[in-house]
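Extended Data, panel c. Modelled sequence:
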Amino acid sequence: MLALFALMAAARLTLRFAKLDDAARIPSSAHGSTEDAGMDLHAVEAAEIPPGSWASVGTGIAVEIPPGYEGQVRPRSGMARKHGVTLLNSPGTIDPGYRGELRVTLINHGPAPYIVRPGDRVAQLVVGSYAAVEWQAADDLAETARGASGFGSSGR
């Protein structure tokens, strides 16, 4: 089992990208580690986001995600904790066929305006595999201990 984990850790995916703006920065790990799942996305444009408002901020890059993989644009925890700023649609999904600019829609839940400057880290990108799904209609589904218990069923 340990050998399987070592093999998985050694596997690397190469992503092709295009800089759409001279100021664009290649997504990178904040700690420079191959063990970091998220790669920081940087703004190429400025924005001021008043409390309760949102803004779309460009990153100046486009990516070529191979079939069988997806990109997820996720919030940065420090922005949420320190400023109340997060992503409006989280996670944002980047499908393998998309070739446009990666843009980040930030929302300010904090009490003060939030200023985005070119070069600021505004989100993180995580790339992972997904399973293609084929739907099959059924008259009944296999029984489970949970059954149909949904929202709020596990207690407070």
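The mean pLDDT is 90. This feature is highlighted in the accompanying rendering.
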